[in-house]
Design brief:
With 179 residues, the protein is mainly α. It has one domain (11-178): Up-down Bundle (Ferritin), CATH 1.20.1260. The protein is built from six helices and two strands; from the N terminus they run αβααβααα. A two-stranded parallel ribbon has the order 1-2. Helix 1 packs antiparallel against helix 4 and helix 2 (47-74) packs antiparallel against helix 5 (132-156). It starts with 10 loop residues before the first helix and ends with a helix. Pfam families: Ferritin (PF00210). Belongs to the Dps family. This is DNA starvation/stationary phase protection protein. Residues 21-159 form the Ferritin/DPS domain.
């Protein structure tokens, strides 16, 4: 447990908020690596549009990781940014699509965003009862992640509003349904 935290929080509450943020830090580090993987492995007619759409997402998510790590440090804890920390705090499977079409990767990425945004909303709920500053940080980040997911879904949606990956529950099935 930390020997100090931010003013207005108990050491115990600061450590609890930091634990929630550590999960988000690991998720953001994993996401930015996954996004780069997609950036490098996307092929097909929509290659350049998707390739260029992904890089700004990578940079913003890297920034989110930095903001979260700095908040953890301000709370008096040590942010863990190692590959081992990603594995330790991971509650999801590793991204499972290799070289594939833009549609396939976007369909799989949509599921990645589903999981990340759902977990962020849970974290917002947990920290909101304790620390409005951290809650605000996560709310802003989650809003931008939802915007990125909208960008992804715009490529998957048909004229009737149905997503190409609507019934898929795994990345590989999502990719297959969108090919």
């Amino acid at each position: 447990m930390a020997k100090y935290t931010v003013p207005g929080l108990s050491d115990k509450d600061g450590a609890g908020v930091a634990r929630v943020l550590q999960e988000r830090l690991s998720a953001y580090n994993d996401l930015h690596l996954t996004l780069k993987h997609i950036h490098w492995n996307v092929v097909g007619p929509n290659f350049i549009g998707v390739h260029e759409m992904i890089d700004p997402q990578v940079e913003l998510v890297r920034g989110y990781a930095d903001e979260v790590a700095e908040r953890i440090a301000a709370l008096g804890e040590s942010p863990l940014g190692t590959p081992g920390a990603i594995e330790k705090y991971r509650t999801w499977d590793d991204y499972s699509v290799a070289r594939d079409t833009a549609q396939a990767h976007l369909a799989a990425l949509d599921l990645v965003y589903d999981g990340l945004i759902t977990d962020n909303r849970k974290a917002i709920s947990k920290v909101g009862k304790i620390d409005a500053i951290t809650e605000d940080l996560l709310i802003g980040q989650t809003g931008q992640l939802e915007k990125f997911q909208w960008f992804v879904r715009a490529h998957l949606e048909n004229a009737s509003g149905t997503l190409a990956n609507a019934d898929a529950h795994t990345e590989k099935k999502a990719a297959k349904s969108a090919r």
